[in-house]
């Protein structure tokens, strides 16, 4: 997952993300099929950098900041 319904649509298109609504959720999300390394490299090319990363259960979460 790379974004929610309020994310920058141009950036989501650049990442190759598709918008979906999972059954039971009351919100939309953008998802990609690329591995995290590819997504992070694309975001770095757009001026983002990783500030922190953590694991939540079996999920990895990255926090980024745009320069």
TrEMBL record:
Residues forming coiled coils: none
Any one Pfam family match given in the protein's UniProt record, by short name: GFRP
Source taxon at top rank: Eukaryota
GO cellular component, one term: cytoplasm
Predominant location category: cytoplasm
Keyword Ubl conjugation (UniProt): no
Protein's GO biological process: negative regulation of biosynthetic process; negative regulation of small molecule metabolic process
Alphabetized UniProt keyword annotations: Cytoplasm, Membrane, Nucleus
Subcellular location, record wording: Cytoplasm, Cytosol; Nucleus membrane
Molecular-function GO terms, alphabetical: enzyme inhibitor activity; GTP cyclohydrolase binding; GTP cyclohydrolase I regulator activity
Family as reported in the entry's similarity comment: Belongs to the GFRP family.
Subunit structure: Homopentamer. Forms a complex with GCH1 where a GCH1 homodecamer is sandwiched by two GFRP homopentamers. Interacts with GCH1.
Function: Mediates tetrahydrobiopterin inhibition of GTP cyclohydrolase 1. This inhibition is reversed by L-phenylalanine.
Stated name of the protein: GTP cyclohydrolase 1 feedback regulatory protein
Organism name: Monodelphis domestica (Gray short-tailed opossum)
